[in-house]
Write a structure and sequence with these properties.
Helices cover about 10% and strands about 55% of the residues. The chain contains 2 helices and 15 strands. It has a 15-stranded mixed sheet that branches. The longest helix is centred in the first third of the chain and has 16 residues.
Length: about 170
């Protein structure tokens, strides 16, 4: 009986710790979690404090709040914080991009907790106010941030509706 309870606790703890997953991959990359390193493949769960290192491939990440992050080849990123309450849509998200190119598309946290989404690079801090943007970090830590439109296509008319959000750098 004690073994069954212990197994259930471990399963629920593992499921609770997942904050998202890799939803697409075009090649190899590594996730460093505490002292472990493992290959990131489609379906791999993400946790707070994961360090993501892409090699000759790119990853698409989808978080529990519908935030989407695309990490290109030869990039490095760390998920510092992810707290999310699905009932209210509120939470907090913090990430660090230290090398390469990363595209960020806001999810529920940025829409409902605008002041609680912060992304850092070696030379900039980006406060997201519900939008899409691309950031490129070079080898010496220089950052280029580009605000992008968020577009939705109407399924009936096929018309695109685009909005430009706001970031503070």
């Amino acid at each position: 009986m004690i073994r069954v309870i212990l197994v259930l606790i471990l399963i629920s703890t593992s499921a609770w710790a997942s904050i998202g997953e890799i939803t697409a991959s075009t090649g190899p990359g590594t996730i460093k979690r505490e002292t472990d390193r493992f290959d990131g493949v489609v379906g791999t769960g993400l946790e707070m404090n994961d360090a993501l290192i892409t090699q000759n491939g790119a990853w698409q990440l989808e978080f529990e709040d519908e935030t989407r992050v695309d990490v290109t080849e030869h990039s490095r990123m760390v998920i510092d914080e992810f707290i999310y309450d699905p009932a209210s849509g509120k939470g907090a998200l913090g990430m660090r991009a230290t090398l390469g190119a990363v595209r960020y598309a806001s999810g529920q946290i940025a829409k409902n907790s605008r002041q609680r989404v912060n992304i850092r690079t070696p030379s900039a801090t980006i406060n997201v106010r519900g939008t899409d943007f691309m950031m490129v970090v070079d080898e010496i830590g220089g950052s280029m941030i580009t605000l992008l439109p968020s577009c939705e296509i109407d399924s009936v008319t096929q018309d695109a509706r685009c909005e430009v959000g706001e970031i503070e750098v």
